[in-house]
Amino acid sequence: MAIGDVEICEHTEVHQERVADLLRHMPSEDQLYDLAELFKVFGDSTRIRILFALFESEICVCDLAETLGMTQSAVSHQLRILKQARLVKSRREGKLVIYYLADDHVRTIIGQGFEHISE
């Protein structure tokens, strides 16, 4: 039986053992909310462009704005969101502030996402 493009069971039977096992492994509602919020950050193409640029190289706001054809103000706004989500970090080098991916998890997410869409 199908509803639209989704097939559903023809016989309704709840497999209690399977459901109980799933519930034991299910993250808390707070964890699931935080995960959904993280993926919302990835849901903006401008932020994805910034993350991809940082995937390739550490860079200052001036160079990032030039690379992406954006104003420094617009880039700074998006970087603030990425920093709040703990996806991006920065360090000061003299008068420059250099931005980079926060950790290897972010690099993995970007790399695997790009690999997935390239298949």
Describe the structure in your own words:
The structure is a single chain. The chain is α+β, with helices and mostly antiparallel strands and 119 residues long. It has helices spanning 16-25, 29-41, 45-56, 61-68, 72-84, 104-118, and strands spanning 2-3, 6-7, 59-60, 88-93, 96-101. The longest helix has 15 residues, at 104-118. The two termini are 31 Å apart. Helix content is 60%, strand content 15%. The model has no long low-confidence stretch (mean pLDDT 92). It has a single domain, classed as Winged helix-like DNA-binding domain superfamily/Winged helix DNA-binding domain (Arc Repressor Mutant, subunit A). The strands form 2 sheets. The protein has a 3-stranded antiparallel beta sheet. The protein has a two-stranded antiparallel ribbon with strand order 1-2. It is built from 6 helices and 5 strands, in the order E-E-H-H-H-E-H-H-E-E-H.
Question: Which secondary structure elements does this structure contain, and how are they paired or packed?
Answer:
Blueprint: E1 2-3, E2 6-7, H1 16-25, H2 29-41, H3 45-56, E3 59-60, H4 61-68, H5 72-84, E4 88-93, E5 96-101, H6 104-118
Antiparallel strand pairs: 1-2, 3-5, 4-5
Helix pairs in contact: 4-5
